[in-house]
Design brief:
Elements lengths: L2 H19 L9 E5 L3 H7 L4 H20 L5 E8 L7 H21 L2 E6 L7 H13 L6 E9 L1 H18 L4 H7 L2 H5 L12 E4 L18 E4 L9 H13 L7
Helix pairs in contact: 1-9, 2-3, 3-4, 4-5
Length: 257
Amino acid sequence: MNLRDKLRGLLVRLYARRVEGHLDHAQVPKHIGVIMDGNRRWAKAAGSSTVHGHRAGAEKIEEFLGWCTETDVEVVTLWLLSTDNFDRPQDELGPLLGIIEDVVRTLAADGRWRVHHVGTSDRLPAQMRIALKEAAESTAHVDGIVVNVAIGYGGRQEIADAVRSMIQDAADKGTSMEELADAVDVDMIGRHLYTKAQPDPDLVIRTSGEQRLSGFMLWQTAHSEYYFCEVFWPAFRKVDFLRALRDYAARHRRYGG
């Protein structure tokens, strides 16, 4: 690292401390959703492989969660694998699934997070399903941030699964379709989502400069604030995180009013 890079790093750290010093912890979001975008483009810009980009993105996760523990964040949802990702070439999907499985096991072994899977398990490899089950069971007692690992996740799929679960629940109770139709409301649907009993995201962060949700938590983000960051996920820094929190705190949330 040359002198210019060292100086730049020092200035960034000093700026981050300044931003953190002015952060109002009373205005920190309780639930943050993260669309971790840009691994492949980061790798391409670095002249490296896609797999290296995914590994670099995976390594950023624990660092990010560490920043969250320094605030009053209670829930973090990390979008690790979408349902659309299953259509990627096998030579990319296979290593990606292995990296994600390692992430799940690492988060569970850390001891600071309560790991919860959100998504469908139908198309996941058996080893991944085992890792998710073991992570949830081994961290169920942890009194720390709830980390939703969105794996095999799609917003439309979640709503479809919620409706299916609601219908199945009614059938198990002997409720007729007419009675169910009369009883359906937004609260009932909410009780069948992957994130039932959790607060909806207050803030959604997407890296890489893309300004869209791509189906992320379609139901839960109706009143969320969005923060779109230009940097690719592996290059996401604490100062970028603090800027997102500062931007969120400066907004007046009207909940559609």
